[in-house]
Amino acid sequence: METESPTSNTTTETQDTVITSSATGNETATATTTSGSTKKRQRTIGEMFGPSSTTSKAPAAKRAKLEVTSTNKSVVSTSSKPSGPAVASISEFSLTKFKESLNPEERKLLLLECEAMDESWLALLEKEIRKPYFLRLKTFLWQEGIHDLGDIKVPLRCYPHPKDIYAWSNTPVGKVKVVIIGQDPYHNVGQAHGLCFSVPKGVKVPPSLVNIYSELKKEYPDFSPPKHGNLQAWVDDGVMLLNSCLTVRANTAASHSKRGWEDFTDKVVDLLDRHGGADLPSDSKEPGAARGLVWLAWGAFAIKRVSRLDKKRHLILQSPHPSPLSAHRGFLGNGHFKKANEWLEQRYGPEAKVDWCHLP
Prior knowledge:
Elements: H1 45-49, H2 95-101, H3 104-109, H4 111-116, H5 119-125, H6 132-143, E1 158-159, E2 178-182, H7 207-219, H8 232-236, E3 239-243, E4 248-249, H9 261-275, E5 294-298, H10 300-305, E6 315-319, H11 336-348
Parallel strand pairs: 2-3, 2-5, 5-6
Antiparallel strand pairs: 1-4
């Protein structure tokens, strides 16, 4: 879990320190293809799920295509093109109609989702967030002081700030190239901002991220670790930084775990498995067909979360957690950043590579 203090080099990421695993596995996203009348043009996932220019709550920074040179041997394996159910109907999602369909209690509990979740993801998760388990979770969070953007209690009792809880959703599903799985948010003041392993500028770089920078330096010697720990540039380049639990009580690690967030983010993983990367450049004759992602699973918890994915389509790279308690048991030297780019270049072309070193 991500519970590091900005003023300490210790960490409580203990359950993620016991796994040593090969970094050469492959996994899939159950692909989806759009289908319909021959009178209509098939649309890409990006066209269907891309963020609305008028409804996006927190538009991400401009996404630049930045190349990184990679010379290692490719680890790509070939597989058949994916297929899946038609998803064109989701493109008809209307936030207004969704709000109108909610009963008064749902309208109160789900107002934050309507305000803070990117509409491209809300379209995919509208049924999930109305399930009983999620409404129970939201009732609990309401009691914890997490309401909506118009009702923020100061000082915050829980992190991250409500506006950042769904920060991961600002990358449309079809644009995601890489997924990094975290556990729960940092629980000290000012650290969490909705992206796993990342902290806002001005906050001391946490120990795990120091080790991530060290590994990046090993793989790309010209990389100069920044003085900050904000990984938003990776997000803008198609890297999803997803915690399994999206909130935490101040100063209390794992305090919101096993309340429902894990079930919800399992659904997000499932959607990435089926639709992730579908709008990346492709020679597929099936518009909207997802062709796989890179998953970086660091530590026992993350490895378990990706264990059910299809290894014939995705590239799944596993290693111990970057925590100081385990980084020297296999995280440092894992080569994951270069391996990810080799696979992306083989699968989607050179423009799909992530510029890991660009952290302005």
